[in-house]
Write a structure and sequence with these properties.
This protein is mainly α. The chain is built from 20 helices and no strands. The chain starts with a helix and ends in a 5-residue tail after the last helix.
């Protein structure tokens, strides 16, 4: 009983130490943890570590992906959804098929179906591994692409893995596989949306922040377990529940609840991420031992892993290059539309222009008459499209960003866990597991160890003065919105005249009403994408702090 407790305490201390010391010595914390895990595997108490992969796939990944989805800016995810979908589905499928052919050729007797199964294991980038790139000087769009891809591609890979295993039987059907994939995604989407909505409806009525956070810890599993039971992807369900929660929680949950959530989930992320990389290192020795026992040696498997990793990088580069070209063409089309849209926006800003636009809509609609609501929707759509165009022009994706997207696509926990789910009767199973482990390890060491210096070398010097000026202009626009929102709330008559003890309650209620109006205005602006996501998040956090201060102490609005 004592040894497991000592191991857990030591693991927590190692995770904390690597997080603090890793950046100081210029090494990413995940690499430190893998190295510590490998070293610990030579200790007698860790010599035969055998971790059920289901603990990673069903116990660790859902909360990690849910937490990442909650914290991801919803507007940036929407803007990049087309590119994210391609990276998450088309690239994973294409890479798996090419790797299947490669493995079939270099591993005699394996067969194409088992090759594709191993390709599906190796193909997805990892949400935990790509956290390394967030510590580097990289574009916000690159972070959005990598985050969104790693949230969704795990599900594609795991569905493809199951399909490839089924394909080893004679009853395999291509259209049946397509139908299975569609069912897996669609059902997961529905379950995720439902769980996210119910989660907010329940937690809105729970005022204790501690209890509220405890409930939030169950949400990824409440989404994932039913989805898996229905034959869908539990990971997609957890991600969708997280996106729904992250998007709607500022309107639904109190600042105290959201602050408690944020602080506690960061701790959970740190522990789970660290545990994944520690166990990855711990298991490596036993995997190598299994290969040496069953086969001639590990050398051929390592060579195959090197070739597989090189192929994944090449395929990724071949996909990303035309993707960025297509995105650039879309931006240029938007730029050509900008003047026309600005003219329409100016027209809708006056009563006369609104009336003219409404009459034109009536003429085009014919029997189906337009309404004032249709006019409001048109105005919102124009605002969002203009904001999107401005965002894409401000954050272009050139060859530097393309290099970051390619080189930062690292493998990690999903690859290691998925490899161990291969059936026991898989041909050359121990070799395939070692190949997957080696690909993940090489990816972390080679890509993770060099992505920081690479990006710092190719990233042009940042004009700090221009960035500060842009942020200051953004804050000025936001504060003007806050001032306008506050002025729209009339001051109660009771606050006029000489101060009295009764005024304190009235004043407090008035200030909370003003903050609620300001938050609503900021969230509307967030939905329209009219402000930078990071600057807006900072202002929302300041507004939350003001509300907490007023509610707890009756202090002034800061």
């Amino acid at each position: 009983m004592t040894e497991p407790l000592v191991a857990i305490v030591c693991a927590l201390l190692v995770i904390a130490a690597s997080t603090v010391l890793g950046p100081r010595v210029g090494i990413a914390p995940p690499l430190v943890l893998v190295a510590v895990g490998v070293a610990a595997s030579f200790l007698p108490m860790f010599s035969a570590v055998d971790i059920d992969p289901e603990w990673i796939l069903a116990g660790v990944l859902p909360p990690l992906l849910y937490s990442a989805a909650v914290s991801m800016p919803a507007m940036n995810f929407r803007r990049e959804f087309g590119a994210i979908s391609g990276l998450s589905v088309l690239l994973v499928v294409g890479t798996s098929l090419l790797l299947g052919l490669f493995f079939m050729l270099v591993l005699p007797g394996l067969g194409f179906a088992w090759g594709v199964a191993l390709g599906a294991v190796v193909s997805p980038t990892d949400a935990v591994a790509t956290s390394i790139v967030k510590r580097t000087p990289v574009s916000k769009r690159v972070v959005a692409l990598l985050d969104g891809e790693s949230l969704l591609n795990d599900a594609t890979a795991l569905v493809l893995l199951r399909t490839a295993i089924v394909a080893t039987a004679a009853s395999f059907s291509f259209w049946g596989a397509v139908g299975t994939f569609a069912w897996s995604v669609v059902v997961a989407l529905l379950v995720g949306v439902l769980v996210g909505a119910v989660n907010l409806a329940v937690r809105r009525r729970v005022t204790d922040p501690t209890v509220n956070t405890v409930i939030s810890f169950t949400v990824p599993f409440v989404a994932a377990v039913p989805a898996e039971a229905l034959g869908a992807s539990g990971l997609v369900a957890a991600v969708v529940a997280g996106l729904v929660t992250g998007f709607r929680s500022p309107r639904e949950l109190s600042p105290q609840n959201r602050l408690s959530d944020t602080q506690n989930w960061r701790t959970v992320e740190l522990v789970l991420e660290g545990a994944v990389f520690l166990t990855m290192g711990l298991q490596l020795r036993s995997v190598v031992t299994a290969v040496e026992r069953d086969h001639a040696g590990v050398g051929p498997a390592v060579l195959v892993a090197v070739g597989a990793l090189a192929l994944t990088v090449l395929v990724r580069a071949a996909y990303v290059a035309p993707l960025l070209a297509a995105l650039d063409r879309r931006v240029r089309r938007g730029e050509r539309m900008q003047d026309r849209l600005l003219g329409m926006q100016d027209e809708l800003s006056t009563p006369e222009g609104k009336q003219d636009t409404f009459e034109r809509m009536q003429e085009r609609r014919g029997p189906r008459r337009a309404t004032e609501r249709d006019l409001d929707r048109l105005s919102v759509r124009i605002t969002r499209v203009l904001a999107d165009i401005d965002y894409f022009l401000r954050e272009p994706l050139g060859w530097r960003e393309g290099t970051a997207v390619v080189w930062a696509g690292m493998r990690g926990a999903v690859t290691v866990a998925a490899a161990q789910t291969l059936p026991e009767d898989t041909p050359q199973r121990s070799v395939l597991v070692l190949i997957a482990f080696t690909v993940a390890l090489l990816s972390l060491v080679v890509q993770g160890g060099t992505v920081g210096p690479l990006l710092r070398r190719i990233t042009p010097p940042v004009d700090e003065a221009a960035v500060r000026e842009r942020d200051d202009a953004e804050r000025t626009r936001i504060f003007e919105l806050l001032r306008t929102s506050a002025e729209a709330i009339p001051e109660p008559p009771e606050l006029a005249g000489d101060p009295t003890p009764e005024m304190f309650g009235v004043s407090k209620k008035h200030r909370l009403t003003v903050i609620a109006a300001q938050r609503s205005a900021l969230l509307d602006a967030r939905d329209n994408g009219t402000f930078d996501a990071d600057v807006l998040a900072h202002v929302l956090a300041t507004l939350d702090a003001s509300q907490i201060d007023i509610e707890m102490r009756g202090g002034p609005v800061t």
